[in-house]
């Protein structure tokens, strides 16, 4: 009430207290308070004492009060708008008739069974046309056109919207014409006239830019982008999407912002800019949560999970997948929730968290049962079996894998039949049943061949090669590795080719064919380099260094190791760099390189900085051995004692190092006098016996990914 009185006073301040506009306000108040009927009010304002005194300025003031009261007292605003419209018609003021009709149209309910709004707008257009009121006529046509679209009367909508745009030049466009151009363009695009639609979207964009209408700019750019040719340069596409995003962020339309963010993120992903794509998706996720749009949140999370997986951040991908399981279950989408639970289980397996993977696959199994989805149940059972096999639970693992195999056969799912046969073979091998494992894997290869699944065939053949290699059957292992390599070459799988060539090189080295091992390793290195796989490059340089050592080619071995260190440094991969530094220093020590002591010190500092206690103990031991045998006993013994203490803290794993360090301390004998030599040294002068070097030819390299066990994904 206080707001209404304030409005009344504001209006009266503009007019004399007994003005006609003031009287209209009082009549509208009486109608709202049920002291007067609408028909009586309409009749009263047509009386000469009121009508004759109404001026254009009064109509402007009445419209201002209608606008102000539309949010405070809608009923009062509607009554006042009706009285204003009736007074304008009775007065014969064409411009005021049109403006009042347009204002009343915005206040009436959307449901219009009596078609009052249509009549108002048609009448407004007719009056505007008669009076030459172009702006009012265009607005009326636009609203009629949009109502026709809502009623699915596309032919009428097209005519009305086109007429609205043709009534004036583009330079005279207002926000209404921007909306009309967008709506007409959408209509023409659905009908297949892409060129005309694009022309309208460009007009909307230019007009919106001139009007500083940010929503219109964003909407027009989005539509122009959608109509661009598929071979459009991705940088160009991303630049336009960024413009649209910037415009959208200046509006309050969070839904529009989120749509643009998702499309920009996809363009960036396609252009290989994963990090930028992730940033956009995180912004989209924040918007989705802000507006409570669960469907949009799900789309952002799914894209984030895929993006994080693509840049190797499996833990982050798993976090998003876990959230998706909860989200889809909350939405009642059991099948979708189960699908994400199986993906979560696979991610957890890759993260070496089989216990958590069991929980994820167990949840997927429960959701599959609730959804009645047999295929999902099959995937959940298979994943559960794989996870249980990694937990050394053979009975449960094989039981669930066999159930998955049975479901695949019952549903004639040959592809997954091959998959589960492979997983069963892998589990049997793990549980020390090699003959049964080989039979299952051979059956899996045959099944994969029937469905032409080349990738699965290659995986199964790799595992067969590994089983035969472990059993000392080198010819059979070489045969299976070779077949797998050929299939992966056909598929263009560079990572798998590197693994298989390294495995073949290992077989050659084990049988004394060092030249062949070097050639195969160099092939693997060439493929890894072309593929940009620097991690494999580091490890392969290490392998080639060990092979060069076997040929007593010191210079080549050191060259490979220095390249390994340089690659690891460029990668910013502390663990890999630590191993490369340790290997380099050890080889320098073995061949009497004066740089060995400095190499050990660098490797030792790196291990200490990165919390590698085992590497730190090993480097202390090796450096102590070096110094204690080249005339720097005191410093050498100090490092040996530090190595012994550090290794003791490692428990059983450090026992061999403790034993070696204590033996070296005893062998160093009693403390020498100061004249015996300096207390510190950076180099040694006599090459140590090779058996004094603790790090051997193989080290921990069998755990490198180059030599990893071939594993099959559960899905």
From TrEMBL:
Q: Where is this region: Disordered?
A: 668-715
Task: Give the superkingdom in one word.
Answer: Bacteria
Q: Which GO terms describe its cellular component?
A: cytoplasm
Q: Which SUPFAM superfamilies match?
A: TPR-like
Where this protein primarily resides, as one coarse class? cytoplasm
Indicate whether Metal-binding appears among the record's keywords.
no
Q: Which Pfam family, any one of them, does this sequence belong to? A: TPR_12
Protein known as: Uncharacterized protein
């Amino acid at each position: 009430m206080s707001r209404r009185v304030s409005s009344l006073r504001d209006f009266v301040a503009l007019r004399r207290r007994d003005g006609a506009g003031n009287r209209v306000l009082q009549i509208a108040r009486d109608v709202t308070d049920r002291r007067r009927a609408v028909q009586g009010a309409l009749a009263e304002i047509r009386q000469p004492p009121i009508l004759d005194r109404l001026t254009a300025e009064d109509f402007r003031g009445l419209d201002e009060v209608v606008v102000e009261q539309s949010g405070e007292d809608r009923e009062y605003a509607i009554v006042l708008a009706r009285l204003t419209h009736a007074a304008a018609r009775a007065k014969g003021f064409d411009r005021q008739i049109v403006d009042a009709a347009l204002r009343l149209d915005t206040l009436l309910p959307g449901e219009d069974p009596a078609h009052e709004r249509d009549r108002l707008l048609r009448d407004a257009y007719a009056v505007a046309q008669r009076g030459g009121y172009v702006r009012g006529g265009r607005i009326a046509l636009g609203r009629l056109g949009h109502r026709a679209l809502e009623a699915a009367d596309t032919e009428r909508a097209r005519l009305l919207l086109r007429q609205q745009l043709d009534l004036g030049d583009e330079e005279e466009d207002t926000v209404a014409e921007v909306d009309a151009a967008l709506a007409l363009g959408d209509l023409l695009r659905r009908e297949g006239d892409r060129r005309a639609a694009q022309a309208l979207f460009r007009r909307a964009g230019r007009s919106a830019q001139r009007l500083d209408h940010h929503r219109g700019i964003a909407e027009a750019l989005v539509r122009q982008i959608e109509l661009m040719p598929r071979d459009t340069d991705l940088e160009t596409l991303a630049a336009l999407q960024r413009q649209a995003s910037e415009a959208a962020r200046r509006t309050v339309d969070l839904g529009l912002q989120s749509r643009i963010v998702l499309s920009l993120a996809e363009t960036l992903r396609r252009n290989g800019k994963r990090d930028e794509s992730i940033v956009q998706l995180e912004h989209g996720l924040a918007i989705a949560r802000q507006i409570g749009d669960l469907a949009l949140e799900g789309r952002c999370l799914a894209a984030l999970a895929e993006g994080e997986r693509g840049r190797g951040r499996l833990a982050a991908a798993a976090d998003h997948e876990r959230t998706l399981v909860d989200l889809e279950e909350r939405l009642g989408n059991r099948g979708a929730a189960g699908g994400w639970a199986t993906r979560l289980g696979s991610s957890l397996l890759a993260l070496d968290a089989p216990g958590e993977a069991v929980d994820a696959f167990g949840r997927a199994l429960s959701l599959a049962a609730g959804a009645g989805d047999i295929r999902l149940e099959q995937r959940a059972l298979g994943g559960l079996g794989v996870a249980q096999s990694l937990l050394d639970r053979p009975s449960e693992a094989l039981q669930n894998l066999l159930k998955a195999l049975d479901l695949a056969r019952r549903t004639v799912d040959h592809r997954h039949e091959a998959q589960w046969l492979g997983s069963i073979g892998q589990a049997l091998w793990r549980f020390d049943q090699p003959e049964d494992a080989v039979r299952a894997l051979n059956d899996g290869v045959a099944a994969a061949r029937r469905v032409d699944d080349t990738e699965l065939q290659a995986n199964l053949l790799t595992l067969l090669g590994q089983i035969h290699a472990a059993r000392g059957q080198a010819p059979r292992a070489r045969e299976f590795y070779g077949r797998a390599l050929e299939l992966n070459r056909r598929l263009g799988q560079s990572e798998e080719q590197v693994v298989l060539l390294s495995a073949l090189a290992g077989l050659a080295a084990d049988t004394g064919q060092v030249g062949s091992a070097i050639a195969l390793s160099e092939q693997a290195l060439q493929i890894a380099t072309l593929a940009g796989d620097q991690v494999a490059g580091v490890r392969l340089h290490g392998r080639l260094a060990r092979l060069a050592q076997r040929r007593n080619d010191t210079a080549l071995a050191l060259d490979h190791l220095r390249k390994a260190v340089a690659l690891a440094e460029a990668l910013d991969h502390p663990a890999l760099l630590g191993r490369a530094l340790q290997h380099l220093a050890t080889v320098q020590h073995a061949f009497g390189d004066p740089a060995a002591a400095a190499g050990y010190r660098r490797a030792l500092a790196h291990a200490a900085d990165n919390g590698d206690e085992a590497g730190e103990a090993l480097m202390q031991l090796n450096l102590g051995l070096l110094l204690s045998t080249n005339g720097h006993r005191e410093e050498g013994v100090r490092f040996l004692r530090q190595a012994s203490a550090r290794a003791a803290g490692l428990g059983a794993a450090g026992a061999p190092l403790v034993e070696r360090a204590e033996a070296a301390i005893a062998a160093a004998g009693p403390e020498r006098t100061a004249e015996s030599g300096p207390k510190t040294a950076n180099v040694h002068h006599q090459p140590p016996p090779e058996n004094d070097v603790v790090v051997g030819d193989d080290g921990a390299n069998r755990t490198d990914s180059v030599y990893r066990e071939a594993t099959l994904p559960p899905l």
